[in-house]
Design brief:
heterodimer, A: Aspartate Aminotransferase, domain 2, Aspartate Aminotransferase, domain 1, 17 helices, B: OB fold (Dihydrolipoamide Acetyltransferase, E2P), six-stranded antiparallel beta sheet, 4 helices, 22% helix
Chain lengths: 482, 129
């Protein structure tokens, strides 16, 4: 397919602007003006429409195909959520309206959505209150760690360190470091979970807290999670639950009941709002009672007369962490999803997500290495170490070959504690037929790795562009060619 | 390929005694193989101090970003800017041209804590399991 610039034909126009009949003058200094006109493509309106329609047909998404990208929970986003989010009463609401005189009464519906989503997340996570403001998971982490820091400051604690497991998402250490903490990495034990003995050795009076994803990025639920939280509490540290993998336990286990003090939830993962390509997401953060005062402002409250209002008078709050009230459209979609599923529906989400991951794992076990056997939760991590050894085929080649088979590749080379890892998260949405087709493709690739490895090295062959030079792309960051 | 002169950390950094308390530090060819193509190297400045086992930089490959750990503590006295600008040269000559930094060790006996070439070879064999 040609670039839109390559389709340009000199002098062709989509529309002609009439000559201006009012005087024009330009006051820009010469150094701000272009020496030559910008080299824009010259095309008719039809050329442009065809170009972008063709591009759009090459989109790949959950609406077109299976998307087992591990740790990302690429589940189907029901269309009714989109429909309701596009209602003009929601979609055209101005974010400043609640702050205008009388404006609060014109936004009661939106405030109620925020208030009730908070209530439902409290129930799901076992927390005392949520802020809906963080725009994504990592933003939620930073918000949570800032509240952790505020708690320690308030108590006069001298805390310097946040502990994270070696299987953590990279955003965990980044959030703790930005909040001013030194990050120490706790190694995993032979079962792939945070080592309890290593934790005990590293824990001391300077420990501000721990950040844990449970189940972790290997899809394993740490059986010592309650003890870990108790240990952290014994030095007046706080336990942070990274909700990246909440889909595995939603409706079944509440992080608050396990002893966690702070929880972030990725609405765009667990609660089926669109994501990928950079957002928008939503990462609400919940806290236990003793941390409620530190929540960001504003907070949506319900007054005695049943109306909703925004409260700003919170002297201990960590302050503003986002403009307005978070990504409202995303929160609204999650609200609809939660109401549709209800308590029983949410339990089945976790059950089917876990069942699907285990089905794939058991079927592929004979063909790929499985460094941590046994029951997994919502995702399983295979290794291509065997293929590398036998025929020099890497996880990357397997991922590219899957594209030719019509599937989005799993996450690869993460978590880094597994060599040549392929991290597969099917979610609860997929039918057995889809899972079987994916399994068959994976088995065919494993066989090809033995018989004709060179074809895998050349994959993908069926895409508009073939194997990309990832090294060049990462080294030469100026892609705009300006 | 393992350089018999060098000593090694479990995280695959090597150190070589250049005399007068100065040690060259780099990444083993095993590590470079595992990383795949390196796209970015973040190295310290001359004059920075490092601790044994502490991080002194970051190596980013197409697969992942990893910390670089110092085999010895001391002051950074030289940085291989040519390597930072052209990371491909690490693979071509990991133990000579592909050094990363030179450290003036505050305690040169820390060198003895590191694995020698034979121990490192054994370590790699267990790693490959």
């Amino acid at each position: 397919m040609k670039l839109v610039f390559e389709k340009s034909s000199a002098g062709r126009r989509g529309l002609r602007i009439p000559k201006s009949d009012v005087p024009t003058s330009i006051h820009l200094k010469k150094e701000y003006l272009r020496a030559q006109p910008a080299a824009l493509p010259e095309l008719s309106e039809l050329d442009v429409v065809r170009h972008f329609t063709e591009l759009s047909r090459r989109n790949y998404g959950v609406d077109t195909n299976f998307y087992p990208l591990g740790s990302c929970t690429m589940k189907y986003n029901p269309k009714v959520c989109e429909r309701i989010a596009s209602y003009p009463g929601f979609a055209h609401l101005h974010p400043l309206l609640p702050q205008l005189r009388g404006g609060g009464m014109l936004t009661q519906g939106a405030l109620e959505v925020l208030y009730e989503t908070d209530l439902m997340l409290r129930e799901i996570c076992g927390m005392a209150a949520f802020t809906m403001q963080p725009m994504a998971g990592a933003h939620g982490e930073l918000t949570g760690i800032m509240m952790m820091a505020a708690y320690h400051r308030d108590r006069g604690n001298h805390k310097t360190t946040v502990l994270v497991p070696d299987s953590a998402h990279g955003t965990n250490p980044a959030s703790a470091a930005i909040a001013g903490y030194t990050v120490k990495t706790v190694p995993s034990d032979e079962h792939g979970c945070m080592s309890l003995s290593a934790l005990k050795a590293m824990l001391n009076e300077e420990t501000a807290g721990i950040m844990l994803t449970c189940p972790n990025t290997l899809g394993l639920f740490n059986p010592h999670v309650k003890e870990i939280c108790e240990l952290v509490h014994s030095v007046d540290g706080l336990a942070y639950y990274d909700g990246a993998n909440l889909n595995a336990i939603v409706g079944k286990v509440r992080p608050g009941d396990l002893g966690f003090d702070i929880v972030h939830v990725n609405l765009h993962k667990t609660f089926a709002t669109p994501h990928g390509g950079g957002g928008p997401g939503a990462g609400p953060v919940g806290v236990v009672e003793k941390l409620v005062d530190y929540l960001p402002v504003s907070v949506v409250v319900k007054r005695e007369d049943g109306t909703y209002a925004l409260e700003y008078n919170r002297p201990k709050s960590i302050g503003y962490i986002a403009p307005f009230y978070g990504n409202f459209g995303v929160i609204l979609r999650a609200y609809v999803y939660l109401l549709m599923l209800g308590r029983e529906g949410l339990e089945r989400v976790a059950e089917n997500a876990v069942l699907n991951a285990n089905y794939i794992k058991e079927k592929l076990k004979p063909y790929y290495d499985l460094p941590h056997p046994g029951i997994c939760k919502h995702e399983c991590v295979l290794s291509a170490a065997r293929q590398v050894k036998e025929s020099g085929v890497h996880a990357l080649d397997i991922a590219k070959a899957l594209i030719d088979a019509g599937f989005h590749p799993p996450t690869m080379y993460f978590p880094t504690i597994v060599k040549e890892s392929l991290m597969i998260e099917p979610t609860e949405c997929e039918s057995k037929e889809t899972l079987d087709a994916f399994i068959e493709a994976m088995i065919a690739i494993a066989q090809k790795a033995r018989t004709e490895p060179e074809t895998l090295k050349a994959a993908p062959m069926t895409t508009p562009v073939g194997r990309l030079d990832e090294t060049k792309a990462a080294r030469e960051l100026n892609i705009a060619c300006l | 390929m393992i350089d018999p002169e060098a000593r090694y950390l479990r995280t695959h950094e090597w150190a070589k005694d250049e005399g007068r308390g100065v040690f060259a530090v780099g990444l083993s060819s095993y590590a470079l193989e595992q990383l795949g193509d390196i796209v970015y190297l973040e190295l310290p400045e001359v004059g920075d101090t490092v601790e044994q086992g502490g991080t002194f930089g970051v190596v980013e490959s197409v697969k992942a970003a990893s910390d670089l750990y110092a085999p010895l503590g001391g002051e950074v006295v030289e940085v291989n800017r040519a390597a930072a600008e052209n990371p491909d040269m690490l693979k071509e000559d990991p133990y000579e041209e592909g050094w990363l930094i030179k450290i003036k060790a505050s305690n040169p006996s820390e060198f003895e804590d590191l694995m020698d070439a034979r121990e490192y070879k054994q370590f790699l064999e267990t790693e490959a399991e």
